[in-house]
Amino acid sequence: MLEENKEEFARFAKLHDFYVSDSESWQDAYNREGKAIVEIIRVWERKLCQTSERGQYGKYSAGLSDKFWEEIRKRYSKIDYIGVT
To answer: Range of 35's domain?
Structure first.
């Protein structure tokens, strides 16, 4: 995911750092850029969990999704604040 979208995630990482330091000033820009990043993340989440949902390991799919988002939150701690007004 990060390899295929290097430019987008690099731009978002800088914006995320600005947002962490001053959330009020950067909220609008963070929401705009973050919307695209969350869509990329959700596409990859679906790719990751899609095959396990259909198979005998379907009950583990929700846990896999949670772990995936935990890893994202480790890198981008404020990812859940995208879209907050």
So the answer is: 6-77
